[in-house]
Protein backbone atom coordinates (compact mmCIF):
# COMPACT_ATOMS: atom_id res chain seq x y z
CA UNK A 1 0.00 0.00 0.00
CA UNK A 2 1.24 3.47 -0.85
CA UNK A 3 2.06 5.53 2.23
CA UNK A 4 2.44 9.00 0.70
CA UNK A 5 3.52 10.99 -2.34
CA UNK A 6 5.32 14.31 -2.09
CA UNK A 7 5.28 16.75 -4.99
CA UNK A 8 7.63 19.70 -5.00
CA UNK A 9 6.20 22.74 -6.75
CA UNK A 10 7.77 26.01 -7.88
CA UNK A 11 5.09 28.06 -6.16
CA UNK A 12 2.83 26.79 -3.40
CA UNK A 13 0.58 29.82 -3.88
CA UNK A 14 0.04 28.99 -7.58
CA UNK A 15 -0.33 25.23 -7.01
CA UNK A 16 -2.83 25.34 -4.14
CA UNK A 17 -6.00 26.30 -6.03
CA UNK A 18 -5.81 23.44 -8.54
CA UNK A 19 -4.64 20.76 -6.12
CA UNK A 20 -6.99 21.82 -3.31
CA UNK A 21 -9.96 21.42 -5.66
CA UNK A 22 -8.68 18.14 -7.12
CA UNK A 23 -7.90 16.42 -3.83
CA UNK A 24 -11.11 17.62 -2.19
CA UNK A 25 -13.16 16.46 -5.17
CA UNK A 26 -11.50 13.03 -4.98
CA UNK A 27 -12.37 12.63 -1.29
CA UNK A 28 -9.04 13.64 0.27
CA UNK A 29 -9.29 15.81 3.36
CA UNK A 30 -6.81 18.42 4.58
CA UNK A 31 -4.22 16.72 6.78
CA UNK A 32 -1.23 18.98 7.50
CA UNK A 33 -0.35 22.62 6.86
CA UNK A 34 2.97 24.44 7.27
CA UNK A 35 4.67 27.51 5.82
CA UNK A 36 5.94 25.78 2.68
CA UNK A 37 3.41 23.00 2.17
CA UNK A 38 0.09 21.26 2.59
CA UNK A 39 -1.07 17.66 2.64
CA UNK A 40 -4.34 15.83 2.08
CA UNK A 41 -5.25 12.36 3.35
CA UNK A 42 -7.52 9.60 2.09
CA UNK A 43 -7.50 6.51 4.29
CA UNK A 44 -3.91 5.79 5.28
CA UNK A 45 -2.40 7.46 2.19
CA UNK A 46 -1.58 11.14 1.97
CA UNK A 47 -0.31 13.53 -0.70
CA UNK A 48 2.01 16.46 -0.02
CA UNK A 49 2.44 19.62 -2.10
CA UNK A 50 5.52 21.53 -1.00
CA UNK A 51 7.51 24.55 -2.12
CA UNK A 52 10.69 23.26 -0.55
CA UNK A 53 13.52 25.70 0.18
CA UNK A 54 15.86 22.83 -0.82
CA UNK A 55 14.33 22.42 -4.30
CA UNK A 56 16.27 23.32 -7.41
CA UNK A 57 14.70 26.37 -9.00
CA UNK A 58 13.88 24.84 -12.38
CA UNK A 59 10.39 24.42 -13.81
CA UNK A 60 8.72 21.04 -13.45
CA UNK A 61 8.56 19.08 -16.69
CA UNK A 62 6.60 15.82 -16.74
CA UNK A 63 8.52 14.78 -19.87
CA UNK A 64 11.82 14.53 -17.95
CA UNK A 65 12.76 11.30 -16.17
CA UNK A 66 10.81 11.00 -12.94
CA UNK A 67 7.13 11.39 -12.22
CA UNK A 68 5.00 11.73 -15.34
CA UNK A 69 1.55 11.81 -13.75
CA UNK A 70 -0.65 10.61 -10.91
CA UNK A 71 -3.72 8.50 -11.72
CA UNK A 72 -6.78 8.43 -9.47
CA UNK A 73 -10.00 6.42 -9.48
CA UNK A 74 -12.89 8.84 -10.01
CA UNK A 75 -16.58 7.98 -9.92
CA UNK A 76 -17.63 11.13 -11.76
CA UNK A 77 -15.05 11.75 -14.48
CA UNK A 78 -17.44 13.71 -16.71
CA UNK A 79 -18.51 16.10 -13.95
CA UNK A 80 -14.92 16.65 -12.89
CA UNK A 81 -13.91 17.48 -16.47
CA UNK A 82 -16.76 20.04 -16.59
CA UNK A 83 -15.50 21.67 -13.36
CA UNK A 84 -11.75 21.38 -13.95
CA UNK A 85 -11.22 24.50 -16.03
CA UNK A 86 -12.57 26.75 -13.29
CA UNK A 87 -9.92 25.33 -10.95
CA UNK A 88 -6.78 25.69 -13.07
CA UNK A 89 -6.86 22.40 -15.00
CA UNK A 90 -7.12 21.91 -18.77
CA UNK A 91 -8.22 18.76 -20.55
CA UNK A 92 -5.38 17.06 -22.41
CA UNK A 93 -5.90 14.91 -25.53
CA UNK A 94 -9.34 16.48 -26.03
CA UNK A 95 -9.58 15.00 -29.52
CA UNK A 96 -9.46 11.48 -28.03
CA UNK A 97 -11.30 12.13 -24.76
CA UNK A 98 -12.58 10.08 -22.93
CA UNK A 99 -10.74 7.17 -24.58
CA UNK A 100 -7.22 8.60 -24.92
CA UNK A 101 -5.98 5.56 -22.98
CA UNK A 102 -7.69 3.13 -25.37
CA UNK A 103 -11.24 2.16 -26.36
CA UNK A 104 -12.02 0.31 -23.12
CA UNK A 105 -10.34 2.89 -20.84
CA UNK A 106 -12.64 5.74 -19.75
CA UNK A 107 -10.51 8.51 -18.30
CA UNK A 108 -9.66 12.20 -18.38
CA UNK A 109 -6.13 13.53 -18.51
CA UNK A 110 -5.79 16.98 -16.94
CA UNK A 111 -2.84 19.36 -16.70
CA UNK A 112 -2.54 22.35 -14.35
CA UNK A 113 -0.72 25.64 -14.89
CA UNK A 114 2.53 24.25 -13.46
CA UNK A 115 2.50 21.32 -15.90
CA UNK A 116 1.45 18.58 -13.46
CA UNK A 117 -0.68 15.90 -15.09
CA UNK A 118 -3.35 13.79 -13.42
CA UNK A 119 -5.43 11.00 -14.87
CA UNK A 120 -8.97 10.50 -13.61
CA UNK A 121 -9.88 6.88 -14.28
CA UNK A 122 -13.55 6.02 -14.46
CA UNK A 123 -13.27 2.45 -15.70
CA UNK A 124 -15.01 0.85 -18.63
CA UNK A 125 -18.12 2.46 -20.11
CA UNK A 126 -20.47 1.07 -22.78
From TrEMBL:
Segments forming domain VOC: 1-123
Protein name: VOC family protein
Organism encoding this protein: Nonomuraea roseola
Lineage: Bacteria, Bacillati, Actinomycetota, Actinomycetes, Streptosporangiales
Amino acid sequence: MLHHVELWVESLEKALPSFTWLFGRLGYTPFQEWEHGRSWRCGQTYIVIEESPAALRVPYDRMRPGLNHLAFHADDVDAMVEEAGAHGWRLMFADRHPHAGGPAHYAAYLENEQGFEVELVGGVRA
